[in-house]
Design brief:
Elements lengths: L14 H6 L5 H15 L5 H14 L4 H17 L3 H14 L4 H13 L3 H14 L4 H13 L3 H14 L4 H13 L3 H14 L4 H13 L3 H14 L4 H9 L3
Helix pairs in contact: 2-3, 3-4, 4-5, 4-6, 5-6, 6-7, 6-8, 7-8, 8-9, 8-10, 9-10, 10-11, 11-12, 12-13, 13-14
Length: 249
Amino acid sequence: MHAERRRTRWADAPLALWLLIMPIDFARGQSLADQLAACKDERRETQARIAACTGAVGEAKGDEDILTEVLLQRGVLNEQAGERQAAINDYTEVIKIDPANSVAFFNRGNVYDQMGEQDLAIADYSEAIRLDPTDPDAFNNRGQAYEVKGQSDLAIADYTQSIRLNRDNPRAFYNRGLSYANRGEYETALADFNQAIKLDPEDVEALVSRGAVHEELGNDDAARSDYRKALELAPDHEEAREAATRLGN
């Protein structure tokens, strides 16, 4: 079982705020406003948005507030396009401009984690947590990096803190359940999967994982029920289909 629940943060400063803080230069301001609008326009294709963000970066030189937001936005878009090094470069530029920007550390940590650079990811998540210790996502994501390194005690501690900060988010319950299951602590894992599914009844991966735990505990009827529900939601889910067949549907 592997934890895969992460979240990337968008630069979410409203366009109205950007326009308010632009220098009073009508021609430049109009161009920058157009580029910003295109950069944030979710109806446009990713590459077109990246190009617009790049144009805005050029126009925003000298205004660190706008430049920071645009670089964050472009970093996320580069992630979506699979351009991980470009995303890292954008987040690193934000950190140079604003070393207290927890979102840039958080997002850069996500990219490092995706690249298999768990030590670098943990360092960035830890800095994001230092800057904003109330962020449950940073604890959840650092927990995943610890889990990949085989440090399940540290992973579980981070998932637990994430849950303390936000008990309504199923991701940390799911991830902690995986950690406990991988340690063979099936009853404890079952409790976490139950909570994850209570919060998100249509989470196919949580249903399949709970089914596997039920199997380990010898609860075949309960396992069948979970696999069937998972297949209702995702008929092509290979693991659920194989498990259901193994148990005789």
